[in-house]
Amino acid sequence: MLTVRCPRCRHDMLYGPKLSQQSPTVVGKKKRCVYCGMTFSIHSDQAKTRIVQIGKRETPNMPLF
User: Fold this and answer.
1) Percent of the chain with pLDDT over 70
2) Which pTM does this prediction carry?
3) What does pLDDT average to over the chain?
4) CA distance 63 to 65
5) DSSP states of 11-62
6) DSSP-based three-state secondary structure for 3
7) 21 vs 59, which has greater pLDDT?
8) Alpha-carbon radius of gyration of the chain
9) Cα distance between the two ends of the chain
């Protein structure tokens, strides 16, 4: 389970990717925001990544710093 952030509305959401033998990583997977409907992809690059943290955040939408 991953916590990802939408690049448009900045809401945090849980993302449980379905991994298979053909694609065992989350790189390139798509996620649709449940708040604004934007579809975005999960990147492996740390500058472009939407992954906030691995697991569930205790206080969603709080600043990371």
Assistant:
1) 72
2) 0.66
3) 77
4) 6
5) -EEEE-----SS--SSTT-EEE-TTT--EEE--SSTTT--EEEES--SSTT-
6) strand
7) 21
8) 12
9) 22
